[in-house]
């Protein structure tokens, strides 16, 4: 029996019932028609399958699973293939556990460092976020398991998340917050999309037809089902009409009855309900048709995958005097509770019940002959933020006796979680005090950070090396040791800017908004788009990451020097490892627009490639740029537009470390013809077709031969400049007022009509 046949055989009550969960984690079954139930489980960096007590906040225990690097760390890999491999591994785990859809990846934009859920999200940059999400989705779904990309959309804070309205213009939405989803949806076609809790310009995401139907389905071609975030349904029938197919978790039949009643009283067309049921059953049947009874959840094997992944994600922020890598035989002091009990994941719905956890100090203890002179001091407690004088003194003494002190620091669990935002960017005071105390007695100090978002570093100038481990998953301890001692060459790069202080962030003044309204006043100037355009000093720029080797970039080549907005530009560059170790370089391509009429960021990431090179080896890296790489969203056109002019392509190792530049000329996309009225300025008229010719009689009557001729023989230079500027910025109606009676309203209106006619396309001749 086909899905359409099953739907025809269903009662109205059965169809309505299929649009909500059977319980917390399962869709409903219709046994008499052979419709099975499907299980979904939380993700996105591990399988949080709950067998008994169910919740969506990570409170109750789930099965033993493997925790991979969280989104904050995974994005720092800048590695599409790694994200795909993690996805494949997660997909296999789901098959082994009978899970049809894993909830993730999470791609919401990191608008502020304070967002409590930033550890789960990828980046401040939508291009990077969507490219990585596309690959994780492709990996999971290659195992015939669905994904649920989330949270759609503009979910950038936990504060009042179930009622707050994200207020933004169309350009900001298109270029930043929707763009984080777009490539992933178009390219990898997730089985489901999860709507967010928040409202968007006053309309709840679950009820936002513009987002769920017009854009997601109509423009992007999404053909799966839309599922609510757990508890995000606000008004079931309007939500269904807007494009929200499946409500999770169960409503215990209450909302099912509302759907039935709406069909019976004619306020809901039954075809809308049938369409939602078909979308849901299509994915349920898709999973059932490809159930893999041979799949095995090999937790030890997947743990090793998690360790390898973590090593590719960590970012070496600083390495003065090449302090790293360290010698295992040297006198080393491991300091900090996180060396013994690492923080490696965030709190809330993504919390994994780990099969095992590797701590760096524990691994050292297991192999004392390999680390004969390494000692440990706790230094601080994570459960309280007060300096313990005895602990700190023990750490100082251990550091004094060591060649190098390694401090494991970061944010405790209570600082970052789903459900609330941070209030500051500081480390706990006891950790800051410890770092400063150790730095005073040992200049050779390494700080390893375990955190899900940027932190302030007032001590940065007093330490030689900083390794950003992020929340790197359950194998974090082994991965840290791999990098500390050079078994793995660090290759992570920051997927977000680290500002010097919270107040530097572009959303600082209005991040949480007022009441239930949050205005995104910074517009498209999020993250590096703001910092780089303002030329603001930052702690570490977007894309930054060091290596134990060095690279050069050269021989940049373009497929063409001139573009139309339908062309695809191929950019090639040669990358060479000029150091003594094998390493991976992340070459980033930024596009800098010409100085035009539109306010735009100074540059934007439009390409990146990660390439592994042996010492002395050279490889060619290739980028392909289409129209979108050069476009901004034109709200008048309601489409993407390329401004004509010369674009600079910047190849670099970060948004601030540009190695090579090359230029290309774009013909551009025509603007929407301007609406011409008596309020149109003379300066704007002069830019229009035949504008100078049409307006010339009025300008002459006004007393100047040309608005840009400087023809003012009897005037001083400054007066002439004043007159010219006044004329340029004067509306057409102003010529009547200042025309000394020589220009009438009819004269000005005639010019408007002539300009309108000149802007129209020519009529076809039969």
TrEMBL record:
Superkingdom, taxonomy of origin: Bacteria
Stored InterPro entries: Cellulose_deg_GH3 (IPR050288), Fn3-like (IPR026891), GH (IPR017853), Glyco_hydro_3_AS (IPR019800), Glyco_hydro_3_C (IPR002772), Glyco_hydro_3_C_sf (IPR036881), Glyco_hydro_3_N (IPR001764), Glyco_hydro_3_N_sf (IPR036962)
Signal peptide: none
GO molecular function: beta-glucosidase activity
Database matches in Pfam families: Fn3-like, Glyco_hydro_3, Glyco_hydro_3_C
Keywords assigned by UniProt, alphabetized: Carbohydrate metabolism, Glycosidase, Hydrolase
A GO biological-process term: carbohydrate metabolic process
Transmembrane domains' residue ranges: none
Domain Fibronectin type III-like: 585-655
PROSITE patterns associated with the record: GLYCOSYL_HYDROL_F3
PANTHER family xrefs: BETA-GLUCOSIDASE
Family the UniProt entry places it in: Belongs to the glycosyl hydrolase 3 family.
Protein name: Glycoside hydrolase family 3 C-terminal domain-containing protein
Native species: Caproicibacterium argilliputei
């Amino acid at each position: 029996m086909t899905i359409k046949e099953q739907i025809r055989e269903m009662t109205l009550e059965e169809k309505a019932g299929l649009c909500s969960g059977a319980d917390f984690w399962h869709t409903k079954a219709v046994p008499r028609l052979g419709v099975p139930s499907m299980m979904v489980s939380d993700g996105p960096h591990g399988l949080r399958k709950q067998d008994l007590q169910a919740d969506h906040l990570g409170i109750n225990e789930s099965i033993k699973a493997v925790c991979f690097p969280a989104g904050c760390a995974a994005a720092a890999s800048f590695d599409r293939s790694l994200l795909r491999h993690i996805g494949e591994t997660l997909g296999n785990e789901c098959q082994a556990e009978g899970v049809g859809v894993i909830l993730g990846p999470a791609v919401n934009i990191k608008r502020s460092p304070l967002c409590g859920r930033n550890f789960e999200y990828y980046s401040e940059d939508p291009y990077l976020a969507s490219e990585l999400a596309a690959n994780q989705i492709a990996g999971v779904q290659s195992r015939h398991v669905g994904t649920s990309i989330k949270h759609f959309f503009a979910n950038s804070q936990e504060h009042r998340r179930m009622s707050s309205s994200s207020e933004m213009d169309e350009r900001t939405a298109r270029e930043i917050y929707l763009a984080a989803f777009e490539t992933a949806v178009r390219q990898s076609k997730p089985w489901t999309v999860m709507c967010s809790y928040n409202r968007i310009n006053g309309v709840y995401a679950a009820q936002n037809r513009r987002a769920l139907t017009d854009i997601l389905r109509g423009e992007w071609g999404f053909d799966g089902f839309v599922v609510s975030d757990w508890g995000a349904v606000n008004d079931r029938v309007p939500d269904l009409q807007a494009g929200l197919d499946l409500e999770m978790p169960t409503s215990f039949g209450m909302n099912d009855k509302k759907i039935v009643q709406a069909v019976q009283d004619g306020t809901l067309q039954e075809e809308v309900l049938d369409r939602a049921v078909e979308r849901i059953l299509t994915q349920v049947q898709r999973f059932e048709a490809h159930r893999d009874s041979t799949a095995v959840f090999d937790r030890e094997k997947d743990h090793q995958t998690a360790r390898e992944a973590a090593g590719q994600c960590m970012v070496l922020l600083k390495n003065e005097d090449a302090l790293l890598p360290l010698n295992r035989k040297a006198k080393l002091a491991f300091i900090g509770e996180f060396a013994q009990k690492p923080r490696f994941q965030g709190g809330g719905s993504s919390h994994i019940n780990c099969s095992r956890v590797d701590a760096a100090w524990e691994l050292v203890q297991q192999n004392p002959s390999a680390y004969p002179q390494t000692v440990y001091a706790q230094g601080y407690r994570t459960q309280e933020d007060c300096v313990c004088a005895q602990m700190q003194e023990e750490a100082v003494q251990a550091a004094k006796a060591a060649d190098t002190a390694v401090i494991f620091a970061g944010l405790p669990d209570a600082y970052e979680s789903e459900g609330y935002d941070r209030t500051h960017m500081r480390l706990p005071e006891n950790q800051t005090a410890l770092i400063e105390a150790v730095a005073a007695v040992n200049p050779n100090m390494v700080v390893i950070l375990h955190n899900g978002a940027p932190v302030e570093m007032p001590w940065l100038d007093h330490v030689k090396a900083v390794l950003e481990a992020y929340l790197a998953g359950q194998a974090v301890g082994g991965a840290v040791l791999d990098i500390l001692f050079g078994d793995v060459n660090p290759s992570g790069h920051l997927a977000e800017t680290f500002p010097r202080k919270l107040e530097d962030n572009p959303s600082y003044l209005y991040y949480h908004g007022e009441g239930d309204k949050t205005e995104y006043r910074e517009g498209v100037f999020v993250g590096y788009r703001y910092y780089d355009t303002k030329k603001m000093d930052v702690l570490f720029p977007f894309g930054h990451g060091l290596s134990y080797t060095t690279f050069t970039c050269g021989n940049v080549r373009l497929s063409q020097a001139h573009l139309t907005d339908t062309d695809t530009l191929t950019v090639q560059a040669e990358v060479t490892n000029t150091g003594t170790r094998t390493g991976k370089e992340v070459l980033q391509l930024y596009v800098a627009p010409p100085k035009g009429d539109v306010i735009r960021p100074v540059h934007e990431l439009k390409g990146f490639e990660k390439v592994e090179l042996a010492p002395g080896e050279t490889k060619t890296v290739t980028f392909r740029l289409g129209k979108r790489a050069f476009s901004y969203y034109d709200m008048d056109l309601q489409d993407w537009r390329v401004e004509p002019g010369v674009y600079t392509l910047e190849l670099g190792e970060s948004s601030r470390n540009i190695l090579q530049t090359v230029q290309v000329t774009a013909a551009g996309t025509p603007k929407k013809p301007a609406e011409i009225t008596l309020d149109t300025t003379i300066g704007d008229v002069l830019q229009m077709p035949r504008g100078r010719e049409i307006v010339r009689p009025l300008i002459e009557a006004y007393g100047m031969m040309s608005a840009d001729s400087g023809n003012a023989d009897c005037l001083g230079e400054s007066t002439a400049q004043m007159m010219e500027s006044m004329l340029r910025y004067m509306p057409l109606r102003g010529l009547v007022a200042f025309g000394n009676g020589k220009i009438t309203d009819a004269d000005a209106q005639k010019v408007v009509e002539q300009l309108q006619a000149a802007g129209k396309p020519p009529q076809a001749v039969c």
